[in-house]
Amino acid sequence: MKVLLVDDSRLARTELRHLLTAFPEVEVVGEARHAGEARAQLQALKPEVLFLDIHMPGETGFELLASLDEAPQVIFTTAYDEYALRAFEVNALDYLLKPIQENRLAAALEKVRPRLAAPVLPASPPAEAAATPLGAQDQVFVKDGERCWFVRLAEVRLFEINGSYTQIYFEDHRPLIPRTLQHLELRLDARVFFRANRQQIINLEWVESIEPWFSNTLKIRLRGGPEVEVSRQQSGRFRELLSL
C-alpha cells in the first residue's frame, strides 16, 4: 500500500510516518509540504493512498483535490473537526483528528484495503455523482455541540425533524445536525432508508413490527424505539417496496 503524506507541518508528517511503521504493508513513498509539491508527487509516485491535511499555505486540501483529474483514496488528517461533513462529500475514506490515535489510524487503513482494487474515483465528481447514495456500511461524522461521533449508517435507526435541525437516533444518542430531510433523502440509499412521512426517515433494517393503522396507514415499531406512523401515501409505497 503506497501512501503519500501531505502536511505543511514537518512534525506532523514525522509523527504520522512513525505511526505507519506499525503497519508493515504500508510504504510511505513521499511527503509534501503543500499542494504544489503534492501535485507533482502524485503524478510521479502514483500513491494509492493520500493522507491529506486541510489547512496548508496556498491551496487547501480541498482545493488540491478539486484540481486533480483523478486522485487516490483520501484520508484527511487535520486538527479541525468542522470540515468532516465536507470531507465525506468528496468521497474521503476517513477523517483523522490530530493528534492521530493508532487505533483510529488502523480503522482508516482497514477501509482502504478492500477499495484498492476498485477504480479510482474522480477527485471532483460531476453534480449528479455528488448525490451517490450512502450505503449502510458507510461511516459519517456527526457533531453536536462539543460532542462528535463517527457513525456507521447501519447503526442509525431514525432521522427525525426537530425544529430547523434533524435528529439522528443511534444507540442511546440523539444528536442534532443542520441538515434537512430532503437533503438526507437524496444522500441515503433508498433500499435501506425509507421516508415514512414528512417528519421521519427510517432504517428498514431496524423495523421490529408493522401493524395496520387508521385510514389504511401503517404503524412501524423500530427496535429500540420509537414507533413511527407512516403516511397514507407512503404506506402504499411501503407495501409495494416490501411485496414480491
UniProtKB/TrEMBL annotation:
Residues 142-244 form the HTH LytTR-type domain. SUPFAM superfamilies: CheY-like. The keyword Metal-binding does not apply. The modification 4-aspartylphosphate is found at D53. Keywords: DNA-binding, Phosphoprotein. Signal peptide: none annotated. It holds the Pfam family Response_reg. This is DNA-binding response regulator. It comes from Hymenobacter rubripertinctus.
